[in-house]
Design goal:
single chain; about 450 residues; alpha/beta; Rossmann fold; 2 domains; seven-stranded antiparallel beta sheet; five-stranded parallel beta sheet; about 50% helix
Length: about 450
């Protein structure tokens, strides 16, 4: 997916030109209050997310966003035009052109027909942009006013009652639950494939290299026991009866190997005596060599190899969520988070839901959850003042944590926090350098 190379905004606040180049990694936009950081972020987000109301409300004449990916570039242009009864935003994406009716907040109640047309036009543009960029935008303390919600949207009404942070947190927790359940299904598929491979391994198969067939007579009973316990656990089998059978198996193999070694030692001794011309008495053995346990051990070693690979594959499946939980525990000391039936839950010091966390903990969880839900894909991640409600120590670590969860994200952060900015001194963009008065 494409990332932002640069952005040019004409008519920023009616009298400025704004221009900014970005790198592919982390970009920190700084500036004093009132210098336009939030407006800049809002316009950039509005263009890439095709937010009709935000495009209408933020003052600009045109926006040009240059995108790049592996040497290829694409340009997204948006120009505002006055029209009757509503203004238009004309999009140009490559060679394709689109017209989008702009309906502001004050016009929503009396413009249901135009709003519907605007929504349809916006969706067409969103579908076109979806092939170019994956966008995530967070500004958890700035959500739309109640009058922007569709009167028929019960979910939106509930979000209004909840408050913006809780609404956003709930939305992301639902996404996280879905993600965890998807990964659980992948893990079940790995387990099913393991069972299939184990059953197939029991069937006769000609050795690819017959010269190397045979039995190894080096046997570590303790290691075998440990490996088998792990393998059968991966197959979903555990308990006293399984442990008993494994112990019996290990004992039988160990005795068989010892018996064969003893026989080989006797045969070696007889050959040496015979070679020296000494008399060799025929020895009658009370027991017969039993290769059955060793053959079973060879077959079971294949099961162990398969289970070991399945265990690795399962760990790989959950690696991102494991990292997510580790990062949360590194930030929020004294609380342990787990997934309970797919739902992220605090289980220590006592069990309670994430809705009971403090405002700062919720804000942090929102940022980290958004990052992990990007699934390490190429994303443009816009965040306006992510430091709000976060402790200074958290501010210092939050962007590195986001990049740890998704190294492929292009992070663009507008901030007042010197703690965030100090981590990325080479990536700071000052609003004073972005804005230029148009003569």
């Amino acid at each position: 997916m494409y990332k932002i190379i640069d952005v040019e905004i004409q008519g920023f606040w009616g009298e400025f030109k704004a221009f900014c180049s970005f790198n592919n990694d982390v970009n920190i936009v700084i500036g004093q209050n009132g210098t336009g950081k939030t407006t800049f972020m809002n316009i950039l987000n509005a263009v890439l997310s095709v937010d009709v109301s935000a495009l209408a409300e933020n003052e600009f004449e045109s926006v040009v966003v240059k995108l790049g990916h592996e040497g290829s570039t694409r340009t997204v242009r948006v120009t505002k035009h006055d029209d009757v009864p509503f203004a238009l935003a004309k999009y140009s994406i490559g060679q394709k052109k689109f017209a989008l009716p702009l309906i502001g907040v004050d016009e929503i109640r009396s413009a249901s027909l135009y709003r519907r047309r605007a929504a349809e036009a916006a969706q067409v543009i969103k579908d076109e942009l979806a092939g170019l960029v994956s966008l995530a935008s967070l500004s958890v303390y700035r959500f739309r006013n109640a009058q922007e919600y569709d009167a028929g949207d019960r979910g939106a009404y509930n979000r209004k009652l909840q408050g913006p942070v809780d609404a956003r947190l709930q939305e992301l927790m639902q996404g996280l639950t879905k993600y965890q359940l998807e990964l659980s299904q992948k893990a079940r598929d790995i387990s099913y494939e393991l069972q299939r491979e184990v059953l197939m391994s029991l069937l006769y198969q000609q050795e690819p290299n017959p010269a190397k067939t045979g039995f190894a007579l080096t046997y570590d009973a303790d290691s075998e026991r440990k490996n088998l316990m792990s393998a059968y656990k991966q197959l979903g089998l555990s308990g006293g009866s399984v442990t008993k059978r494994i112990n019996e198996h290990v004992k039988a193999v160990d005795e068989a190997v010892r018996g064969i070694r003893s026989w080989l030692d006797d045969e070696r001794e007889r050959k040496e005596l015979k070679a020296r011309g000494e008399r060799v008495d025929r020895v009658e053995r009370d027991d017969q060599l039993d290769f059955t346990p060793i053959e079973a051990s060879r077959r079971i070693s294949k099961v162990y190899e398969l289970s070991l690979q399945a265990e690795k594959d399962s760990k790989d499946v959950f690696s991102q969520l494991d990292l997510f939980l580790k990062i949360i525990s590194d930030f929020i000391v004294g609380k342990r988070f787990e997934f309970d039936s797919g739902v992220l839950t605090i289980v220590e010091p006592k069990k309670f839901s994430v809705s009971k966390l403090s405002s700062g903990e919720k804000q942090l969880l929102i940022l980290l959850t958004e990052a992990v839900l990007q699934r390490q894909e190429s994303y443009i991640f816009l965040a306006d003042e992510p430091e709000l409600s976060l402790h200074i120590a958290w501010q210092r670590r939050v962007v590195p944590a986001i990049k740890s969860l998704n190294p492929n994200a292009q992070v663009v952060v507008a901030t007042h926090s010197p703690e965030i900015a100090s981590k990325y001194k080479g990536s700071i963009i000052d609003m004073e350098d972005i804005l230029h008065v148009v003569s």
